[in-house]
């Protein structure tokens, strides 16, 4: 957080509302007093979360809890994931030559996209709940909604990761030769071959990389939102995230 | 003047009368001794006479001669038929009819030691068995018919002996035979002789092969005509193959053999399939091999199928690739998918058939050196450098930002 306190509008320069009017409307002679700045303007720049997450969340502490921006962030991730899921499901179902399923690739793609969107939102809540519960071990104090908000902000790096993953997935699927899959075994084998493809593995790695970045931000968010020491917050966030990453790496390798 | 002219005319008439009196007078039968209107026409060696007077007395004549078969081969037995007519008005007492040998032609037996009376205007037929010997040529055995007054009939009958056999040749045969593979062989049987042959039949001879059909019956073969006989042979190892042509010259059976002298080996005309233009890609653990198959042979390859050989596991969607027919000098592309571990090459099996349905198989290998790395498109086995560089940059950037967030 910079030393310039702002009113939450992220203005680089003070606007008219930032200038305090003289008391009693008196017109005073002499040199004009220096323009005071509002000290209660605490909403930080969103980009600050990348460089100074602690300051970002400390600034938010003075603000009332608002889920508008976190929801938008998570929704953005969900939409990006939904697009990738739609592509994958559409391709997969389009390859199926099983009677009754043929031609339903688009339908299954939409179902997959919606499921991915809902799952992303649910995952946000689940992460928050896990952090909330674990932080209780360290006698954490703080509102769930605020923690939910902070965890939502912490998803911001994954928007970038989602974009990169989307590009990788699109690049992979656009030139994918789709065979006719007539048996469930063939579908399973082909799906497995997709997940084992280096490009799709890179997509997973990129996702984990940005998850790691989010986890780093969540540490500061949990530390601020649940009034924990950095160490306790790191444990609160690190354990579940590390488990998730280990599971993902295991799935990637095996 | 008139008197002189009259004397000249009388003189001319007298000359004509004298000339007429000096020539023999022929009396031809008019009713029961009708001469044949169509006398059998024989080749130059056989003779048909329309009516010939051969003896003094102007009564006996040889009406016709015929030989069956018209042209003999050496060793053949033929039947010479001579028809003699009594063209006179009185019966003739014939004592003996005989045929003398001449050159390669001998006469079997003496069937007419006492002929008897030949009525006026009647005909009598004499048949002699003649045997043709060597060498070829034309013989003139003489037919003689003795009569009581000693003025017999003598007539040389030309008989030709020609041992030219039918011309047998292959119009289609394999340039090489391979054990167990069917081959087509077609024989042509031509008749260069001047008489027709009958009962012509071609039969495969030899051992160590199967053949369809087992024989081809051609039947009669007119002079200067030809016929063909086709066989589908499937030889085994060390097969000896030949063809026997059986034919009849009249009643005489003859044979001619034609060996099929073909060596074992691969046909020089067979299709020769060559694989080239390999492109190997790797998707996860599945190799994708594409390439071209060229027919560098001289015959069409049918039912061409390309498949991975032993040691690799074919994978969907192209565990095998069916090309179908491939004309000479033509090519087609193929695509194979397979899994292979710890291999640097992949064996490939090309199977095809010829026009007769004989299966052939060629084997080759392709290197598994990856020459396409487009895994970003799901078609390669490794990541492009661009993606790897991007991942490194992202990791470095994220690492830096995480680091910066902690030092503040």
Highlighted features:
heterodimer, A: 254 residues, mainly alpha, elongated, disordered N terminus, B: 408 residues, mainly beta, Immunoglobulin-like, six-stranded antiparallel beta sheet, five-stranded antiparallel beta sheet, 2 helices, 26 strands, 11% helix, rod-shaped
Largest sheet of chain B: 6 strands, antiparallel
What about the largest sheet of chain A?
Answer: none
Largest interface: A-B, 38 and 27 residues
Number of helical regions of chain A? 9
Distance between the termini of chain B: 176 Å
Proportion of residues in β-strands of chain B: over 45%
Structural class of chain B: mainly beta
Quote the average pLDDT of chain A. Answer: 78
Per DSSP, the total helix count of chain B is 2
Order of helices and strands of chain A: HHHHHHHHH
What is the approximate shape of chain A?
elongated
Globally, the shape of chain B reads rod-shaped
Q: What structural class do helix, strand and pairing data of chain A support?
A: mainly alpha
**Radius of gyration of CA atoms of chain A, rounded to a whole number:** 24 Å
Task: Itemize the secondary structure elements and their pairings.
The complex is a heterodimer of chains A (about 250) and B (about 400).
Chain A: H1 48-51, H2 53-61, H3 68-95, H4 105-137, H5 144-154, H6 156-174, H7 184-195, H8 198-225, H9 230-253
Helix pairs in contact in A: 2-8, 3-4, 3-5, 3-6, 4-5, 4-9, 5-8, 6-8, 8-9
Chain B: H1 2-22, E1 52-53, E2 60-68, E3 71-72, E4 77-86, E5 92-99, E6 105-108, E7 116-118, E8 123-132, E9 137-139, E10 142-147, E11 153-156, E12 159-161, E13 167-172, E14 183-190, E15 197-212, E16 216-221, E17 226-249, E18 252-259, E19 273-283, E20 286-295, E21 301-308, E22 313-314, E23 321-326, E24 331-339, E25 345-353, E26 359-367, H2 385-407
Parallel strand pairs in B: 3-12
Antiparallel strand pairs in B: 1-2, 2-4, 4-8, 5-7, 5-10, 6-8, 9-12, 10-11, 13-14, 14-17, 15-16, 15-17, 17-18, 19-20, 20-24, 21-23, 21-25, 22-24, 25-26
């Amino acid at each position: 957080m910079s030393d310039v306190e702002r009113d939450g509008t992220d203005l680089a320069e003070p606007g008219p509302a930032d200038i305090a009017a003289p008391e009693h409307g008196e017109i005073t002679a002499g040199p004009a007093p220096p323009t005071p700045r509002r000290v209660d303007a605490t909403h930080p720049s969103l980009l600050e979360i990348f460089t100074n997450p602690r300051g970002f969340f400390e600034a938010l502490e003075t603000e009332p809890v608002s889920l508008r921006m976190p929801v938008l962030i998570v929704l953005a991730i969900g939409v990006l994931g939904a697009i990738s899921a739609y592509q994958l499901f559409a391709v997969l179902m389009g390859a199926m030559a099983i009677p009754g399923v043929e031609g339903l690739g688009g339908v299954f793609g939409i179902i997959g996209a919606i499921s991915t969107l809902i799952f992303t939102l649910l995952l946000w809540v689940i992460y928050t709940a896990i952090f909330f519960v674990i932080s209780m071990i360290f006698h954490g104090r703080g509102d769930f909604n605020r923690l939910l908000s902070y965890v939502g902000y912490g998803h911001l790096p994954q928007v970038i990761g989602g974009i990169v993953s989307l590009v990788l997935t699109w690049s992979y699927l656009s030139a994918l030769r789709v065979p006719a899959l007539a048996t469930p075994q063939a579908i399973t084998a082909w799906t497995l071959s997709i997940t084992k493809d280096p490009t799709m593995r890179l997509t997973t790695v990129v996702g984990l990389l940005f998850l790691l970045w989010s986890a780093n931000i969540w540490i500061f968010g949990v530390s601020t939102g649940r009034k924990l020491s950095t160490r306790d917050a790191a444990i609160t966030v690190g354990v579940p995230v590390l488990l998730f990453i280990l599971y993902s790496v295991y799935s990637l390798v095996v | 003047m008139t008197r002189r002219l009259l004397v000249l005319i009388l003189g001319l008439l007298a000359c004509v009368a004298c000339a007429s009196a000096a020539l023999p007078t022929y009396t031809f039968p008019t009713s029961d001794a009708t001469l044949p209107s169509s006398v059998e026409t024989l080749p130059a060696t056989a003779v048909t006479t329309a009516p010939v007077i051969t003896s003094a007395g102007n009564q006996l004549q040889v009406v016709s001669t015929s030989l069956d078969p018209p042209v003999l081969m050496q060793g053949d037995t033929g039947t010479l038929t001579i028809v003699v007519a009594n063209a006179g008005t009185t019966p003739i007492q014939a004592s003996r009819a005989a045929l003398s040998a001449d050159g390669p032609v001998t006469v079997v037996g003496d069937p007419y030691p006492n002929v008897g009376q030949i009525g006026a205007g009647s005909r009598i037929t004499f048949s002699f068995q003649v045997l043709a010997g060597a060498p070829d040529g034309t013989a003139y055995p003489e037919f003689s018919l003795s009569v009581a007054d000693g003025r017999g009939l003598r007539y040389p009958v030309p008989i030709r002996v020609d041992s030219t056999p039918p011309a047998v040749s292959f119009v289609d045969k394999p340039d090489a035979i391979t054990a167990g593979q069917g081959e087509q062989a077609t024989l042509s049987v031509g008749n260069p002789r001047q008489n027709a042959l009958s009962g012509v039949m071609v039969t495969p001879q030899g051992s160590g092969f199967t053949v369809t059909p087992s024989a081809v019956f051609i039947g009669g073969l007119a002079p200067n005509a030809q016929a063909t006989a086709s066989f589908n042979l499937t030889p085994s190892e060390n097969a000896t193959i030949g063809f026997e042509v059986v034919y009849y010259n009249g009643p005489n059976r003859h044979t001619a053999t034609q060996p099929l002298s073909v060596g074992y080996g691969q046909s020089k005309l067979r299709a020769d399939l060559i694989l080239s233009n390999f492109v190997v890609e790797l998707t996860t653990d599945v190799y994708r091999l594409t390439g071209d198959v060229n027919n560098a042979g001289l015959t069409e390859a049918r039912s061409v199928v390309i498949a991975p050989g032993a040691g690799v596991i074919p994978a969907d969607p192209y565990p095998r690739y069916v090309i179908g027919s491939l004309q000479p000098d033509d090519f087609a592309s193929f695509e194979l998918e397979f899994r292979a571990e710890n291999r640097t090459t992949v064996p490939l099996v090309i199977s095809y058939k010829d026009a007769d349905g004989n299966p052939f198989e060629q084997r080759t290998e392709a290197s598994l050196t990856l020459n396409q790395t487009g895994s970003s498109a799901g078609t390669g086995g490794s990541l492009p450098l661009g993606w790897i560089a991007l991942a490194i940059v992202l990791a470095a950037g994220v690492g830096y930002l995480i680091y910066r967030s902690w030092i503040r």
